[in-house]
Structure formats: C-alpha cells, structure tokens
Amino acid sequence: MPETPPPRTGLRHRVGAAARESVGGLPSTFWWLWTSTLVNRLGGFVVTFLALYLTVDRGFSPAFAGLVASLYGLGGSLASVAGGVLADRIGRRPTLLAAQTATATATLVLGLVHPAWAIAATAAVLGFTGSASRPAVSAIMADLVPAADRVRAFSLNYWAINIGFAFSAAAAGLIAAHGFLLLFVGDAATTLLCALVVFVRVPETRPEAAPVTASAPAAPRTSLVTVLRDPAFMALVGLTFLLACVANQGSVALPIVMGHSGYSPTDYGLVVSLNGLLIVLLQIPVTRFVEGRNRALMLSVAALCTGCGFGLTAFAGSAWFYALTVTVWTAGEMLSVPANMALVAELSPVHARGRYQGMYSLAWSGASFLAPMAAGFLLAVSGGDAVWLCCTLLGVVAAAGYVWLLRERPRPHHPLPATGPDTAAAENADAPSASSS
Fold first, then answer.
1. pLDDT for 175-203, tens place per residue?
2. How many CB atoms lie within 10 A of CB 40?
C-alpha cells in the first residue's frame, strides 16, 4: 500500500499560502480600483516635490512654500466634506471620475503658471480636486468588501499607494534634474489614465435604499451634523488630525531642512522614497502580524513611532541618519493607517459612508492646511528643531488619546438602510466592535 505523502510544509508552500491569505477572496472590482490607485500614485510627483519646486527652482521663500502647501490643504479640507456628500448623493463613480479629471487639469495648469498669486490659487484648486476623490474611493471599498476583510483590503490599497510613492519619489528626483515641468505633465497624464481605468472597470457601488414599508421604515437621515455629534468618531478624527500634522512634515519641513543643509532634490527623493519602499516590502506582513492584537496598543505604538521618528530628525547630520528617521516614522505609518481606515468603516452607518469617510479625510486635508503654515512659521522663527520637537509632543498626545478612545465601550448602533435583510444581518454580524482588540 503506497505511503501517504507528507504534508507540504516547505518554505515555498508557506509563502504561497500566506500570499493567498493576504490577497485572496477579494472582489474583482476591488482589484480594478486598486489598479487605478497604483497608476495614479506611480505618477504622483507634484505634491511630494512642490516645496522643493517652489524654493529651489522658482526661488520663493520657505514661508511662501508653506503658504502654498496650506492653501492646497485648505482646498482639500473643503473637498473632503463635499466629496463625501457627493459620493452619497450622486454616487461614488461620478464623483471619482469628475474629481480625477479635474485634478489632471489643475496639475498641468500649476506647472505652467508663473505669478505667485496664480500658483497659490491653482494649488488651492488642486487640493480641492485631489481630495474630492478620497471619500468615494474609501466608500467603494467599504461597499465592496465584507467587514471581516476590510483591514486587509485597506492595507492592500495603502500598499498600492506606496508602491507608486516609492517609485514616484525616487524617479521624480531624477526627472526634476531635467526640468520640473516634466513632473507636472507626467502627474497629469497618470491621473487621466487612472480615471480611464475607473470609467471602464469600476461600476457604481452605492447601496440602493429599499422601498419604505410599515415593517421596514426608512433609514434615518444622516447629515454632517449627525456625524459631528458622533463622539467616538469625532475623537478618532481628532487623533488622526494630530498624526496627520506630523506626517505632513515629510513633504513640507523635511525637504526644506534638507535643501538648506545642502542636499539635492535627488538626495531628498531617495531618502523619502524609503518610506514607500518599506511599506511595499513590509505592509502586508505587518498587517498579518497586528491582526487580532490589542488595537489600542498597536495604535499607541504607531503614534509614538510617528512622533519620535520625526523628532529624531533634529539629530540628523547625514543622508543615512535621515533615512533612519524615515524608517522609524514609516513603522508608525504601517501600523496606524489601515487599522484607522477599518475603524472608520466600523463606526460608519452604511447609508452615510461617504459623509463619514469625508469627515475622516478632513483630518488629513485639514492637517495639510494647518501643518505647512505652522511649519513655515516655526522654520522662520526657531528653525527645524522646533518643528521636530512639536512632532514628538503631538505623537505622545495621540498615543495617550488612542488608549482613552479604545478602552472598552459599547458599540454604537447605526440603523442600516433596507438593502435586503441578508445585507443588514451580514453587516451587523461581521462588523467587530469599535473597541475590539
């Protein structure tokens, strides 16, 4: 009688099984959305290098660069809310397509205008169009992916963002040596290609409300005021805002400090591209590692890594030390972003996902408005060390805030629209508590 072959336990088999667990079982539409995100980020040159473009190529002051970045953030702040409302009202797909097309146009215009006022105004418009798409993308993923798989899905989407960022940050420094205008043209072209992928392959996913009956009344209307009155969710938005203020310094204070220290755009591009490279290599293993672990602990550690990683920049005296600081705050980023996005989906009622995602995006775009302005002021008055000290303090405050927010508490109840009894039951059964470990 032939012997039963031993189970396959080799390294190749284990790697294959881990890969299937990480990327398997997700809807095909999710992967087309993932592809569009990757295409967009592969050409995401402009925002990362905007401060260097203004200070090195155009000769503007760091204060003006900070003002332009703040106006970009102001436009994004307005768009985060507007994009979320539009995603719920007119649909995810038309919101996404309109935002991406407008973003490509604004990007090209920004590279062509020369007066300071025109640069500032166009940056504000670009901030609006660029951020208007974010709530729609997040809402599509929440619509498509079951609750049990959302951390994995958001992590994979974040992985795509950073595959593109790692490439674009390194390539942009080399492209800029031949003229910054090429960065704007390339960014606009890839954004249009991203919109084309969405147009061809991503359908509308907004849940349809069921007919109102005596046994199934209409879902309660959710407005922005309702979102603002959700204390747990708004606390999460506030903590995200603190960490976003810190994270923004990677594209605001860091390039200015490195430029004033004699480093070239290529040096900065290679250093900051390490952020994307590490996420590309490690985001999926890190996500698998933190699944099932205490969420409050993980997010608190992430906040400390983010704040202290930027704080270490005060001691940087070489490109290698700058790379070390990027490694530390990237570790915090890998721990925090997918978990935060999944937490937003858990706290959001199905019929108002766009508004909730928009308010969450407001934390990032609001930080993009205030953080550059504050950094420009501190750099002009006190130097880079003051910026890095503030980053450390904000990281510590955020870490304490996560411990407070994620203490055991009852899960808030969000009535679901009647998209079918099976849908509602699945959402309530699958979605973990906001305070789950």
1. 777 778 888 998 999 999 999 999 999 88
2. 28
pLDDT score at 154: 80
Nearest to 191 by CA among 44, 93, 86: 44
- Residue 413: pLDDT band (50, 70, 90) is very low
323: left (phi over 0), alpha (psi -120 to 50) or beta: alpha
Spatial distance between the Cα atoms of 264 and 276, rounded to a whole number of angstroms: 19
Handedness of CA 390, 326, 38, 71 (dihedral sign): positive
Q: In which band, very low, low, confident or very high, does the pLDDT at 56 lie, cut at 50, 70 and 90?
A: confident
Q: What is the mean pLDDT of residues 401-418?
A: 61
Helices 353-381 and 319-347 pack at an angle, to 10 degrees, of 150
d(CA 100, CA 188) in angstroms, rounded, equals: 9
